[in-house]
Amino acid sequence: MKKTLIIILAIAMLLGLCACGETNANSGPVEIPPQAAELEDKGFKCTMVKDTAADYKTACKQDPSQVTVGTLTITECKRYGSGQTPSKEGLEALEGYEWMEIKARTVFDDQNARLYGVDRASTVTTYYDQKYYEQSLKDNENGSTSFSAVKGGKEWKDCLYIKTVDNQGWNEERQSICEYTWYVRVPEGYDGVVVVFYNASLKWEAGKYIYEVLDGDSLLFRAQ
Questions:
Q1: What is the pLDDT of residues 100-129, one digit of tens each?
Q2: Which of 19, 76, 156, 196 is least surrounded by Cβ atoms within 10 Å, i.e. has the fewest?
């Protein structure tokens, strides 16, 4: 009986050693599943087309109860290859990422714009998971905004965008002009960058996602 117990104990010890030495085939990096097209799921279509003007409705600057209607045109959407950057100073190229350059132009010349001014509102968001995107946002001291994106089952944490106002004011034709550029660093081939223009009177309260703020007059451009 004693000999039998010793044999059983020895076998148990050997099994324990083998278990400790096993390699778990599932212990590699966790795959991140593809994200749903949440903006479209919430009813917002990216209808803006490059070089095609669309009506842009927003509040007046001096009197937000007044509305002005102008036009918005996406004038450029360019991708730079890996290792390349736009001409703007200070942009850093990173392995696996690429820069995008998106330009927009707004023009207002109706009576309300001339009487009360124009209040424009715009931002960059993602075509995909809004909660994931919002939680990843970080405003940097240099005026840029960092964010994360998912592509190819991998999380990319070094995404970045910078917005500049290149030209703003009234021209000789009494038109209120404002031109913008967004410089956006994303994973190579990423198709989730969306530029949004919306009515400046819409209230974006803390904790709300963009699809809870936008209305049917909002304009969305998906950079592809």
A1: 999 999 999 999 999 999 999 999 999 999
A2: 19
Integer Rg of the chain from CA: 26
Asked if residue 11 is part of any domain, the answer here is no
User: 26-35 contacts: CB < 8 A, separation 24 or more?
Assistant: 31/153, 32/150, 32/153, 32/154, 32/155, 33/153, 34/150, 34/153, 35/128, 35/129, 35/132, 35/150, 35/192
Please give the pLDDT value at position 34. Answer: 79
Domain count, the chain: 1
Do 147 and 161 contact (CB within 8 A), yes or no? yes
Tokens of 164: 């500049």
| Coil, strand or helix at 77 | strand
Q: Is the pLDDT of residue 18 over 70?
A: no
Strand partners, 76: 103
> Is the CB of residue 183 less than 8 Å from the CB of residue 101?
yes
CB 131 within 8 A of CB 137: no
Q: Is residue 4 part of a domain?
A: no
